[in-house]
Amino acid sequence: MAELLRTPLVPAAMIRSASTGTLEVKEPLNFWCGAKVKPKDVKNAETVYEPATGRVLCQMVPCGAEEVDQAIQSAHSAFLKWSKMAGMERARVMLEAARIIRERRDDIAKLEVINNGKSITEARVDIDVAWLCIEYYAGMAGTLAGQHVQLPGGSFAYTRREPLGVCVGIGAWNYPFQIAAWKSAPALACGNAMVFKPSPMTPVTAVMLAEIYAEAGVPEGLLNVVQGGAETGSLLCHHPLVAKISFTGSVPTGKKIMEMAAKGAKPVTLELGGKSPLIIFNDSDMENAVKGALMANFLSQGEVCCNGTRVFVQRDILPKFLEDVVKRTKAITVGDPLLDETRMGALISRPHLDRVLGFVSQAKKEGARVLCGGEPLVPADPKLQGGYFMSPCVLDNCNDDMTCVKEEIFGPVMSVLPFDTEEEVLQRANNTTFGLAAGVFTRDVTRAHRVVENLQAGTCFINNYNVSPVEVPFGGYKMSGFGRENGQVTIEYYSQLKTVVVEMGDVDSLF
Ligand SMILES: NC(=O)c1ccc[n+]([C@@H]2O[C@H](COP(=O)([O-])OP(=O)(O)OC[C@H]3O[C@@H](n4cnc5c(N)ncnc54)[C@H](O)[C@@H]3O)[C@@H](O)[C@H]2O)c1
């Protein structure tokens, strides 16, 4: 058995004294049996960078088959205890976990920033959303119940809502802590255990979540973290003790996850990418529409799955919209993500930054006009000079056939497209294989509801964008995935119904 370590991943005093460019994480990043576990084979270590500086933050050592099996066995033994507890008992432990997260919110947010590059203001919101989600599902744990059905002759049947077993969560790098919370909270509320694999680029904060659940009093091994990339992920998906896979990431990986799950007939939740439309009609409140377009494009450096990156603007208000949107975009402060006044931090990695800048060059070649941004940015602060920054970009003169309008860029690049009629814009908005989200700005109430009724997207916003309260379901249509996270319905994705038929009379046998 591997060595177990019970000291904190990063002591609070060390986090509090850290600033951008100073922190190194040396502790092991695997977590099972209620403790951190040293990796087995350090020769496969991959370097993890701090996006704001380009400096080394830690080493991520992928888990092999033996380690994945240990984590899953650990989850399975915790599941046997946790699933026998009453919903209210589980709720109490989950509420304690939510309380600890709330208490350590600033520390967790700071580590998230150092690992991911987003601004501290946004990271604090992410951590708040994480504890809110755990609190919400703690509240639901005690409400899980079946049905009683009266049958002829006094016989009856009842249903029991039961957990699935060991669930696997696989996360993307853009909301590392929040994704781990969104997956573990409903899973645990239903009585399941989980093995979570964060993205290899953001391995750190999921371990803090595992530490917090352990401290709150879950059975040892209830939430485990294994590190690694595609290989570790596929070991998890193929493991026979795994009952369900919940995945957040790109469409191509999502398809592979589904294939692997199919081999074991395992249910999957797929939260995939998007290229969502935001439609702005000429009767909109202009200031709100402009603010909405910025919220739809520039949160987390544009690295948000549900971003409304195809901004359709009714032709007669286009000049005014562009003038205002460009003015506000130019005013976004890009820089040290740990400073309160910063509104945009660094992109996740150098290759990703190059990819996003490549989309801007391609857009120019295809005839788009860059109204602002789209350039690499080197902040004046010397410690940030190796960081992965770029200026937020607005593209005009776009058409529906351009690469920047068709493909998910996952960076701070907004494409603006004029339209004339409602019928035309609906057809163009839906002309995509994705269907994650969509937005509409208008003062006409009937039009707003008519438009969202006809939009092929799992989450629609009227007169706002990128608002995701934990009480409402979130998920995609078409190739953006299926299954939902958040809201009451997610209970159904982490539980199964057992029907029990009870005979009160004699057996009426045909034989
Ligand atoms: N719909 C949502 O809720 C949501 C949220 C965040 C991000 N995303 C999407 O995620 C993408 C960006 O994230 P990314 O680059 O980390 O995505 P990705 O698909 O490259 O990786 C996601 C995760 O899958 C793992 N993985 C990769 N190959 C695997 C395999 N063969 N088997 C098992 N696991 C494997 C990765 O290690 C990572 O943990 C974007 O497309 C974005 O839209 C969607």
UniProtKB/TrEMBL annotation:
Coiled coil: none annotated. Keywords: Cytoplasm, NAD, Oxidoreductase. GO terms for cellular component: cytosol. One of its GO terms (molecular function) is 4-trimethylammoniobutyraldehyde dehydrogenase activity. InterPro entries: Ald_DH/histidinol_DH, Ald_DH_C, Ald_DH_CS_CYS, Ald_DH_CS_GLU, Ald_DH_N, Aldehyde_DH_dom. The keyword GTP-binding does not apply. It catalyses: 4-(trimethylamino)butanal + NAD(+) + H2O = 4-(trimethylamino)butanoate + NADH + 2 H(+); an aldehyde + NAD(+) + H2O = a carboxylate + NADH + 2 H(+). The keyword ATP-binding does not apply. It is found in: Cytoplasm, Cytosol. PROSITE patterns: ALDEHYDE_DEHYDR_CYS, ALDEHYDE_DEHYDR_GLU. SUPFAM superfamilies: ALDH-like. The active site is at residue 271. Pfam families: Aldedh (PF00171). Pathway: Amine and polyamine biosynthesis; carnitine biosynthesis. Residues 46-500 form the Aldehyde dehydrogenase domain. Homotetramer. Belongs to the aldehyde dehydrogenase family. Converts gamma-trimethylaminobutyraldehyde into gamma-butyrobetaine with high efficiency (in vitro). Can catalyze the irreversible oxidation of a broad range of aldehydes to the corresponding acids in an NAD-dependent reaction, but with low efficiency. This is Aldehyde dehydrogenase domain-containing protein.
